[in-house]
Write a structure and sequence with these properties.
The protein has one domain: START domain (Alpha-D-Glucose-1,6-Bisphosphate, Chain A, domain 4, 2-Layer Sandwich), CATH 3.30.530. The chain has ten helices and ten strands. It has an eight-stranded antiparallel beta sheet, with helices on both faces. Helix 6 runs antiparallel to helix 7. It starts with 14 loop residues before the first helix and ends with a helix.
Length: about 350
Amino acid sequence: MQHGFYPFEDLRTNCLTTLLGALLLCPSAGIPGEPDGRTLPATPLPVSRYSTAADLQSLHQGMALVDAQDSEYSGEIVVTGLIRLPVSPTFLASHFPDILHNAGNRGSGKFTYFSETPAVSDLAGFSLPANDLDDLPDCREGSCKLKLDRAMIAAFEAFFAQDSPDRDAGANALFRQLAIDYLGRVQRLGDQALINYYDQGSAFSLQALLPEIRTSRGLQTPIPDLFMETAGIPLPENPETRFFWQEVDFGVKRIVFSINRMMIFDANGDNLPDCFVIEQLYANHYFEGSRESYRILPEGDSADGSCYLVYTNRLHIDALRQGGFFSNFIRRKLKKELRNYIAEHLSTLSGMAHQRLMATR
């Protein structure tokens, strides 16, 4: 996710319901209907099977098809998306990490890959927002407006118990160091070092959550198999791995800072790094965990070398676990905003991929 929410025209929020009741289109047949009478290129079976002719027409016009749905987990929203990109699968796979980075730095967003050995200097571009700095002195275990673990809360309690000539600078320096220390533990120890959040009355374990959202477990039947498969793609034993931090202003009260792990591997068996799975390792607000998957599918014999990008994201949000009217209100609003946000995000990736292709010619 790269920047704040935007007002959008209706992006067919019922698109995946339409996809489920799909026409079984022959993958070797074109889809007629372009204004000049041309036939659209052949569409790969995984896409054509879950798309109507109208959906495919929209995809060939550059439109992203996006939906957001509930799952069997009370705190989860599942976002799915599909877009056709005007570049070849090989080109997109080789440039995707850079395209994602550039998209993340649009507008007020920030996206930075960590060094091979993460250092505090990698976080030089990040500073805690003023409202976070104001709230940190009151942060206690079980009652904190930032999502922190027990040791982080204790470290800030000790820091604010001392006199400091520049409290904000000191708090920022401590936060950066704690973030780097945490990432270092995860790199050394793996999932057993994942955070337990102690900002609310009961602890929340990311270590317990991630195995649940690494599969299609808990996803409900309205989600077509194309996205079920993408969400549950098993990780290989030693995928190429990169870590990055991101700052996103969603247009709500808090700016979200996150630390993430990107795993890159071949999911289609064609010796192409065509799957990019991003797991959230930490977020300071709202998100208890998330797992994004980007999967590249070739467009058969398309003359222009286009491809499809299949997107899934399983988001766990603290405010949704409480239930009740307020939680349901937030859920409805978030689903609407996430549809718009991811549609804009996928369109941005498509545009940047095309720009990069033009720059190489």
